[in-house]
Amino acid sequence: MADSAQAQKLVYLVTGGCGFLGEHVVRMLLQREPRLGELRVFDRHLGPWLEELKTGPVRVTAIQGDVTQAHEVAAAVAGAHVVIHTAGLVDVFGRASPETIHEVNVQGTRNVIEACVQTGTRFLVYTSSMEVVGPNTKGHPFYRGNEDTPYEAVHRHPYPCSKALAEWLVLEANGRKVRGGLPLVTCALRPTGIYGEGHQIMRDFYRQGLRLGGWLFRAIPASVEHGRVYVGNVAWMHVLAARELEQRAALMGGQVYFCYDGSPYKSYEDFNMEFLGPCGLRLVGARPLLPYWLLVFLAALNALLQWLLRPLVLYAPLLNPYTLAVANTTFTVSTDKAQRHFGYEPMFSWEDSRTRTILWVQAATGSAQ
Ligand SMILES: NC(=O)C1=CN([C@@H]2O[C@H](COP(=O)(O)OP(=O)(O)OC[C@H]3O[C@@H](n4cnc5c(N)ncnc54)[C@H](O)[C@@H]3O)[C@@H](O)[C@H]2O)C=CC1
Ligand SMILES: C[C@@H](CO)CCC[C@@H](C)[C@H]1CC[C@H]2[C@@H]3[C@H](O)CC4=CC(=O)CC[C@]4(C)[C@H]3CC[C@]12C
């Protein structure tokens, strides 16, 4: 990465490289990082699609491993120039215990940082989340905010708690001396709700709509705006941030960046209809069909059922008090910090992002019309 080593081939490690975002980061690196010599893909569950990547010019090494196991992480990090740490347990539905979420998201991140320090890896990009800021438990709106907008971040749910703590660890590690004596350079990217090819919740909504005869019922007022960003642009932002970290270490080190693009500001449901509409679903109601108090009651009932049934079966519906609060609180970002700090411009326009996502929903659900 130094001038004298322009031609040097770099080793990248992507943790969680087989997840929704991770797969896009992996593919983006292979397409858009000319200095890539080896790409290590570390995940608890390796995807079969990795095999097809192994025939290309870049060496792709699949590593089945667990970020909670420090020795597995250290072995994967050793010799890597850059780590993109996207592995995480994304659970706001009560599928995993709070302890497991903490173990994967916080201890896993700690293990990645320590592995960088011990093995001499200097550049670390962490996938954080808008959830480290909010929405908070008081339902305060965050309207077109940026990285410096004051906001009362109050976390109770295990997922945002874990992401906030992990992000803090990553930022605090910036400047630590790694093996060899040079400083570690870290930054954190905070996506809002990611959508695009591979988005499981979108598929769940589609299936739910099919079960209801092609109808979805409005639950959230159209006026509540929810930040969304296309997965390809989030991946591109990771690749660019990782590439620029050395040259712009003083500016980027220890910084956070919201992930943004040209996706429109809409309610969570109206935004989903941009894709589900062309797949044949209809959203019923200009206004929520149920009063909010009833939704609160149903969400609480779901939480109670989850608790009662836990010894017998995992009951984890989309609606619970936390998801209702997130969906029902305006949270949108408007910033150009990533552009100013490392030259980020979205690679995919809103029209491209929309088309790609529609094609994926149609292919994934066999709904092409
Ligand atoms: N999906 C979203 O809307 C958003 C996601 N994020 C963050 O982006 C990152 C990726 O999220 P998604 O791709 O949506 O989730 P995902 O669940 O599709 O991907 C996460 C990947 O991490 C892997 N993983 C989980 N536990 C692991 C462990 N112990 N060891 C090794 N690998 C493990 C999983 O196997 C999976 O492949 C996460 O850190 C998440 O917090 C941030 C903002 C929004
Ligand atoms: C009340 C329901 C009526 O249709 C709608 C419920 C929708 C929820 C399942 C989603 C609404 C907002 C989503 C979250 C948001 O996009 C922020 C996130 C960031 C992350 O880092 C992980 C995912 C998520 C928590 C995301 C999860 C799904 C929602 C709660």
UniProtKB/TrEMBL annotation:
<comment type="pathway">
    <text>Steroid biosynthesis.</text>
</comment>
<dbReference type="GO" id="GO:0016616">
    <property type="term" value="F:oxidoreductase activity, acting on the CH-OH group of donors, NAD or NADP as acceptor"/>
</dbReference>
<keyword id="KW-0520">NAD</keyword>
<protein>
    <recommendedName>
        <fullName>3 beta-hydroxysteroid dehydrogenase type 7</fullName>
        <ecNumber>1.1.1.181</ecNumber>
    </recommendedName>
</protein>
<dbReference type="GO" id="GO:0047016">
    <property type="term" value="F:cholest-5-ene-3-beta,7-alpha-diol 3-beta-dehydrogenase activity"/>
</dbReference>
<keyword id="KW-0560">Oxidoreductase</keyword>
<keyword id="KW-0443">Lipid metabolism</keyword>
<dbReference type="GO" id="GO:0035754">
    <property type="term" value="P:B cell chemotaxis"/>
</dbReference>
<keyword id="KW-0812">Transmembrane</keyword>
<keyword id="KW-0755">Steroidogenesis</keyword>
<dbReference type="GO" id="GO:0005811">
    <property type="term" value="C:lipid droplet"/>
</dbReference>
<feature type="transmembrane region" description="Helical">
    <location>
        <begin position="289"/>
        <end position="309"/>
    </location>
</feature>
<keyword id="KW-0256">Endoplasmic reticulum</keyword>
<keyword id="KW-1133">Transmembrane helix</keyword>
<dbReference type="InterPro" id="IPR050177">
    <property type="entry name" value="Lipid_A_modif_metabolic_enz"/>
</dbReference>
<dbReference type="InterPro" id="IPR002225">
    <property type="entry name" value="3Beta_OHSteriod_DH/Estase"/>
</dbReference>
<dbReference type="Pfam" id="PF01073">
    <property type="entry name" value="3Beta_HSD"/>
</dbReference>
<comment type="function">
    <text>The 3-beta-HSD enzymatic system plays a crucial role in the biosynthesis of all classes of hormonal steroids. HSD VII is active against four 7-alpha-hydroxylated sterols. Does not metabolize several different C(19/21) steroids as substrates. Involved in bile acid synthesis. Plays a key role in cell positioning and movement in lymphoid tissues by mediating degradation of 7-alpha,25-dihydroxycholesterol (7-alpha,25-OHC): 7-alpha,25-OHC acts as a ligand for the G protein-coupled receptor GPR183/EBI2, a chemotactic receptor for a number of lymphoid cells.</text>
</comment>
<dbReference type="GO" id="GO:0006694">
    <property type="term" value="P:steroid biosynthetic process"/>
</dbReference>
<feature type="domain" description="3-beta hydroxysteroid dehydrogenase/isomerase">
    <location>
        <begin position="13"/>
        <end position="283"/>
    </location>
</feature>
<dbReference type="GO" id="GO:0005789">
    <property type="term" value="C:endoplasmic reticulum membrane"/>
</dbReference>
<keyword id="KW-0472">Membrane</keyword>
<comment type="pathway">
    <text>Lipid metabolism; steroid biosynthesis.</text>
</comment>
<comment type="similarity">
    <text>Belongs to the 3-beta-HSD family.</text>
</comment>
<dbReference type="InterPro" id="IPR036291">
    <property type="entry name" value="NAD(P)-bd_dom_sf"/>
</dbReference>
